[in-house]
Specification:
Strand 1 and strand 2 form a beta hairpin. The chain is built from 18 helices and 2 strands. 64% of the residues lie in helices and 1% in strands. Strands 1-2 form a two-stranded antiparallel ribbon. The protein is an all-alpha fold and 457 residues long. Helix 1 packs antiparallel against helix 4. It is globular and about 65 Å long. It has one domain.
Amino acid sequence: MKSVKKCCFNTTRTVAMGFLLIIIIGTCLLMLPVSSASREATPMIDAMFTTVTSVCVTGLVTVTTASHWSLFGHAVILVLIQLGGLGVICCGMALLMLLKKRISLRERMLVQESYGVNTYLGTGDIKRIVRGTFIIEGIGAFFYGLRFIPDFGWIRGTWYSVFHSVSAFCNAGLDIIGDSSLIPYKTDIIVNLTTIFLIVTGGVGFVVWWDIVGVIRTARQRKKYKNMLFGKLTLHSKLALATTAILIVVGAVLIFVFEYSNKATLGNERLGGKVIMSFFQSVTTRTAGFLTILQENVTDATYLITIVLMFIGGSPMGTAGGIKTTTLAMVVMCVVSVVRGKKDVEAFNRKIATEDVRTGLTVISVSAIILAIGIILLTIIEPFSLKEIVFESVSAIATVGLGAGMTPYLSTAGKFILIVLMYIGRIGPITMATAFSVKRSATMDGVELAEKKILIG
């Protein structure tokens, strides 16, 4: 048992240090004069912030991505986004496979820990992750090209299509069109639906992909589709898909209602435009960061809804951040079980493991504590309102990228606080705590303490 715990401890530290190494390299590259459009060296804090927001697939920026960086800088940012979306460790394993190197059991454990799954990921799993990612990004680039190529020409339009497809699938939210994100395409059906498809596909997680494909393949082989699709999915996939669908629909409906008459957002749009913009806002808050509505113009009710959706985020083993949809579903089921007087936490006629319940509650608690610390520090050193600070802080730790216009005007200390929040949000609060915690004494292992009850509620 000792060897296993030691290996797991080293694994989490390797995941955390792997992201740090990429951040250092990316910062050095973006500080080079060739990386900026003006051919002047970018200040270290802005280069570091851009690197972190790229590799942590967040989207908050201190300089305008489209105008500040050169083609070389954009290429560096694109590579960082892809590394962050796939996972630094997984990309390293994919490189070893291309070089025909043998992947050891320890290296498979690194990939397993970086994605937070319960089984070792083999060579075939890594190939499926990489292949599936490139296929979906290719599909997204094709549909973006239907709009961007006519607007910007073949070369520029193709580059824009590829960049935004990778950024959307990886839930990064960085764009190179201009300083207004996708607002010029706020009611464009092709751009909106393509972006929504990429965000949701990347956000639900690789495990859900495999499960869906496997169930469909089995149904086709048996030629039985009734009760063979959703009903045959794993509990994880059911919770991820159901929670994602509910959050998107409920979020869109609430945003539609709250912004319907707001002339600064949806008020001047036709009914169809209001609907598509409401759904886009609901989806992009799930850690994507693209925007078709200026966040500082929304009503207070939408502001609150956006913060809640950002904090929840996407699903495990995906490109999104947040506390994850399955964690939210688990907490809701836990509350329902307590109210109904049930001993176990149940969902879809299955019992959720007690260990998963404890882990989920820990994720929420640690995330909330780290977020609170970040908010308190920013309120001390920055002159902005609490409303703006809370929004930007949640956006950072949930790796969303939506902002209320505060980030470019932060002090160096304020930018560094957001950098730390983005980093913790990307690698996960549990991984962060485990990676840099002090090893527990072996004398306490296996000791069962006396049980005592306390008053709750």
